Amino acid sequence: MSGHVSATMDFLGKLVNFLILFGGLAFVLRKPLKALLAKRTVDVGETISQAETGRAEAEARAGESRAKAAGLEDEIRGLKAEAEAEGRRETERISRAAREEAERLKKLTRQELEEQVRRSVGELKAYATARATDLARDRIRKRLTPEIQAALIDKSIDRLTHIHEKSGSR
Questions:
Q1: How far apart, in whole angstroms, are the C-alpha atoms of residue 126 and residue 46?
Q2: Residue whose C-alpha is closest to residue 81's, from 93, 73, 91, 92
Q3: Maximum distance among all alpha carbons in the chain?
Q4: What is the helix (H) or strand (E) element at residue 69, kind and residue range?
Q5: How do residues 102-156 score in pLDDT, each as one tens digit?
């Protein structure tokens, strides 16, 4: 039993030693440990607060980004509609300009054709007159014999004499 008592005493000695050591340690370290834990609590609280602030800022930025994205979508739709309207206006302007140019070309072509017709008619009249004159001259030459020519000359002289006598008697 003495071994049993000695073991119990040994155990109790160690237990008392342990309690004194750790009790003293706890007593000595209580204030710094309490300050450390309080500081840690404050740091954790600040970290949580900063995290919440950062999260709120991130959510606000995300909301702004979503609003901007929605605004950009509206702006893109507006720009697209404006571009389509401008395209339609430009197409209409080009079509109108093409129609006006076609009308101008038709009018110019019509005027050129009318001028060519006038010139051609004038040339044709001149040609017809020259040809008729040539034909008449040829016919007269064929029909005009020296006797007929002498008779025409005598007749012209008689007419001139008659005209001269009339004008001289006045």
A1: 115
A2: 73
A3: 206
A4: helix 2-143
A5: 999 999 999 999 999 999 999 999 999 999 999 998 888 888 888 888 888 999 9
Q: Which two tokens stand for residue 142?
A: 């064929």
Q: Compute the distance between CA of residue 11 and CA of residue 15 in angstroms, rounded to an integer.
A: 6
- The span from the CA of 169 to the CA of 163, in Å, is 10
Tallying the residues shown for the chain, one arrives at 170
Terminus-to-terminus CA distance in the chain, angstroms?
A: 204
pTM beyond 0.85: the answer is: no
Q: What is the mean pLDDT of the chain?
A: 88
Angle value at C-alpha 68, between 63 and 74, nearest 5 degrees: 130
Long-range contacts of 126-134, Cβ-Cβ distance < 8 Å, separation of 24 or more: none
